[in-house]
Structures are given as structure tokens and as C-alpha cells.
């Protein structure tokens, strides 16, 4: 299971990559593996303000449907619209082209409260 050490993680299986005052968000390799083939994704429009642990979207697979939870607070700058026509990208490249949102962070330091790669691996017994 791939768990990049430069990212932060949530217990609900989202990852965050800090890029200056912005956060890029997606789901982990573990999450996409557990879900299986993704068949539906609903992401918010740019301009929406999200709070930590607040649902921001829905992902569905052949196995299950699940809410997606914001790991950080801020304004959605962009959603990855390319995914709508290529949902398999989430399964194939969850940490790269399969990203979901780009958020303008209210406070970049809030990322420090998320799990490190080692903590996430321990949490998921990976």
C-alpha cells in the first residue's frame, strides 16, 4: 500500500499535500483499494467554504458509497473536473492526477494536526 511520506492523512482516508497556502486533497491508496472501481463522484464548486470533518462530496464504487470529509478549513479554489470523464484515474493515481480539491487554507498550520504517514500506516495496520 502506497503511503507517501510528504503528505498528511485523516482517519477517514483523505490525504493533504501542502503547497504554500493551498492544500491539495484526495483519497488514499488504501481508500481507493477498499472501494474498488469508482463509478460516481460528486465534488463541490469553487467558492464553497469547508470546515474540518465536514462532508464536502460523495464517492461511490461498485462496492459502497461514502461521504468525503474536509481535512482542513478554507475556500475551495478548484475541483478536479477531469475526473468526471475518467473516474478510473482515482484508482490508478490517487496521489497524482486523481486529486479532488484545491483549497485556499485559512491557516496552513492546521495541516500539522493531521496524521503523518507513519501514524496513518499504524492506524490502518499497513
Question: How are the elements arranged and paired?
Answer:
Elements: E1 8-9, E2 14-19, E3 22-27, H1 29-35, E4 38-42, E5 49-50, E6 55-61, E7 65-69, E8 74-79, H2 88-92, E9 101-105, H3 117-123
Antiparallel strand pairs: 1-2, 2-3, 3-9, 4-6, 5-8, 6-7, 8-9
Task: Describe this protein with a few key phrases.
126 residues; alpha+beta; OB fold (Dihydrolipoamide Acetyltransferase, E2P); six-stranded antiparallel sheet; 3 helices; 9 strands; 35% strand; globular
Summarize, please.
It is built from three helices and nine strands, in the order E-E-E-H-E-E-E-E-E-H-E-H. The chain is α+β, with helices and mostly antiparallel strands and 126 residues long.
Question: What would you say this structure looks like, in words?
Answer:
It is built from three helices and nine strands. It has 126 residues and is an alpha+beta fold. The longest helix is centred in the first third of the chain and has 7 residues, at 29-35.
Tally of discrete structural domains:
1
CATH topology: OB fold (Dihydrolipoamide Acetyltransferase, E2P)
* Strand residue percentage: 25-35%
Strand order in the sheet with the most strands: 1-2-3-9-8-5
Uncertain runs: none
Total DSSP E strands: 9
Mind describing the biggest β-sheet? Answer: 6 strands, antiparallel
CATH class: Mainly Beta
Structural class: alpha+beta
- Termini gap: 7 Å
Q: Gyration radius, to the nearest Å? A: 13 Å
- Average per-residue pLDDT, rounded, comes to 96
CATH architect. name: Beta Barrel
